[in-house]
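Page 47, continued from p. 46.
Same chain as before, 169 aa.
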Amino acid sequence: MSLAASDRDIEGFNELIRELKHRDWDLLLNREEFAFITAVANEHEKWELEVQFHDDSRFTTKSRSRWIVKDDSLNRIESIIDRLNFYENNDSNDNTIWKIDKKLRSFETITEAKVTDDVDFSYFFDAVDENMNYYQSLSDTVRKASTIGFEYSDYTKEKSINPQRIVKN
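Result:
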């Protein structure tokens, strides 16, 4: 939301925060930006969930890994993620984005949803659930792929014309 957010938008945000606190969500709030971050986990890992509300009745949900992508894997993993986004564009939610945040060296899933007037905030919980499902669908794979190292052998006459790749696990 911007500074020009309506009283209705501000009250809706505050009601959601009250509901989340009532459900024992541990929130790091940024009221000026109408955003919050919380920690979530499954049986395999912990990650951050960041939610940012915008002034046009939509919000962005971002799941961000706490593990980091190794420096030597950033570009390789990012190009794979870009291809996945291209092929997933036919999905029902074409606003879903998987990405590598190079500054934080983290894997992220970003989705957008619309704010509705549901009394029980089901629109919010459905959107968060969808985002976390997208995150979990690739998180393990990206984490494992970022730990694989590649070595390129130099060309010699005994070897093929193409450099040989050796995959280390």
